């Protein structure tokens, strides 16, 4: 009996590209690297393996896998530190609770965080985050243009792109003027309830300017995963039951990109007047963290 | 795949658009994505290494390991000519091949 694949398109591509990968690896080695003394494992690390090939030292073959396993161990310390400081129910924290948690995060993460800057604050610092879609970054942008690599497409493409613009419009006026910073801001953006901020309605322009791309530290207290992101949109609506939203990449770095794509997080402003804190995941133990 | 020093020269969005039409599962997407990134990386490395002497190949691989993009580009611009064009050509070649493979895959019957 001849068995036929239920996923013939996928199987065809997987086999073809796995064979191509094997051929290319061998060719690369034979043509260029056989006679080159590679003095570090790093040289081998550049020849990544495919998912169909299993090597005993497979986990050593990429920088990413080493970083992730190290990050998980150290970030778990954050869970232990926060455990007795966060209430059992997801509610607005008291000023004392905010201060204790902010001080603890500042100490453990190595980034100065605070619930209030310049007399301005959000309505809360502990709440439910939900997944947001990608945002249009410049006129003519598309969902697939957001993917820097095929891995990006596979991980984040399914989130889709919002039909309208973010609260502050495009991140850049044109594709030509679109910078790495703009790209990072959309990649790691948050939607927060600016409209519920005390004093917002009375001082609209001042508050809008304050919140635009304001850096925040978001922490998943269940896992210790943390990410530095910017405020890139306003929302979600109060009836959703969520208190803020995260871009697909933010949700991934918080460990909330699968399943219901929702979870309780802490979120504080980052006091960074010299703009030194980079956007993206926070890995405890690395420089600045 | 992490972002490499040449990532800004590569555009393969059209490949993603075609793959979306295959209605792949999340796991299938991730597996194929890994293969695409890896094959693209090898193809580009081949294009670069083909321009370098034996000694310079070693130096380039050391720079690549350290991941200092500025140093990598300084090195390549000093040792080669029109390297950006060669990288773009390599990525276009692989993109064309990926499209051909996807077209063939669509013809495969269950």
Question: Could you outline the blueprint of secondary structure elements for this entry?
Answer:
The complex is a heterodimer of chains A (289) and B (110).
Chain A: H1 8-33, H2 41-45, H3 63-82, H4 95-109, E1 113-114, E2 116-117, E3 120-121, E4 126-131, H5 150-156, H6 180-187, E5 189-192, H7 204-211, E6 215-219, E7 226-234, E8 244-246, H8 248-253, E9 262-270, E10 280-282
Chain B: H1 13-20, H2 26-49, H3 54-66, H4 69-79, H5 83-107
Characterise this structure.
- The complex is a heterodimer of chains A (289) and B (110).
- Chain A has 289 residues and is α+β, with helices and mostly antiparallel strands.
- Chain A contains eight helices and ten strands.
- Chain A has helices at residues 8-33, 41-45, 63-82, 95-109, 150-156, 180-187, 204-211, 248-253; strands at residues 113-114, 116-117, 120-121, 126-131, 189-192, 215-219, 226-234, 244-246, 262-270, 280-282.
- Chain A has a six-stranded mixed β-barrel with strand order 4-8-5-7-6-9.
- In chain A, a hairpin with a 6-residue loop joins strand 6 (215-219) and strand 7 (226-234).
- The longest helix of chain A is centred in the first third of the chain and has 26 residues, at 8-33.
- Chain A is globular.
- By secondary structure, chain B is mainly α.
- In chain B, 74% of the residues lie in helices and 0% in strands.
- Chain B has helices at 13-20, 26-49, 54-66, 69-79, 83-107.
- In chain B, helix 1 runs parallel beside helix 5, helix 2 runs antiparallel to helix 5 (83-107) and helix 3 (54-66) runs antiparallel to helix 4.
- Chain B is elongated and about 50 Å long.
- The two termini of chain B are 31 Å apart.
- The model of chain B has no long low-confidence stretch (mean pLDDT 92).
């Amino acid at each position: 009996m001849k068995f036929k694949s239920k996923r013939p398109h996928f199987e065809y591509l997987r086999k073809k590209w796995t064979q191509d990968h094997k051929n290319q690896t061998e060719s690369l080695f034979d043509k260029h690297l056989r006679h080159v003394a590679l003095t570090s494992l790093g040289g081998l690390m550049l020849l990544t393996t495919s998912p169909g090939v299993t090597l005993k030292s497979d986990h050593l073959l990429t920088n990413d896998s080493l970083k992730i396993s190290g990050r998980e161990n150290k970030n778990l310390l954050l869970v232990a530190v926060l455990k007795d400081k966060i209430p059992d129910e997801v509610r607005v924290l008291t000023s004392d609770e905010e201060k204790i948690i902010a001080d603890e995060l500042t100490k453990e993460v190595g980034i100065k965080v605070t619930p209030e800057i310049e007399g301005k604050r959000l309505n809360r610092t502990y709440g439910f985050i939900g997944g947001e879609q990608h945002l249009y970054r410049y006129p003519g942008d598309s969902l697939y243009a957001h993917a820097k690599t095929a891995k990006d497409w596979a991980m984040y493409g399914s989130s889709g792109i919002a039909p309208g613009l973010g609260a502050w419009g495009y991140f850049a006026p044109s594709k030509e003027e679109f910078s790495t910073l703009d790209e990072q801001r959309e990649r790691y953006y948050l939607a927060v309830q600016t409209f519920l901020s005390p004093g917002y309605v009375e001082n609209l322009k001042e508050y809008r300017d304050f919140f635009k791309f304001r850096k925040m530290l978001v922490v998943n207290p269940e896992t210790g995963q943390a990410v530095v992101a910017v405020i890139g949109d306003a929302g979600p609506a109060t009836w959703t039951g969520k208190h803020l939203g995260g871009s697909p990449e933010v949700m991934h770095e918080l460990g909330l990109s699968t399943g219901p794509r929702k979870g309780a997080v802490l979120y504080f402003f980052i006091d960074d007047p010299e703009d030194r804190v980079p956007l993206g995941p926070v890995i405890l133990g690395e420089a600045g963290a | 795949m992490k972002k490499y020093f040449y990532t800004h020269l590569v555009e393969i969005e059209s490949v993603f658009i075609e793959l979306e039409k295959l209605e792949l599962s999340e796991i299938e997407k991730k597996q194929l994505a890994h293969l695409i990134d890896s094959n693209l990386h090898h193809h580009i490395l081949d294009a670069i290494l083909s321009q370098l002497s034996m000694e310079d190949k070693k130096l380039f691989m050391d720079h690549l390991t350290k991941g200092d993009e500025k140093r990598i580009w300084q090195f390549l611009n000093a040792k080669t000519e029109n390297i950006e064009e060669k990288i773009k050509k390599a990525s276009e070649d692989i993109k064309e091949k990926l499209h051909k493979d996807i077209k063939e895959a669509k013809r495969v019957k269950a």
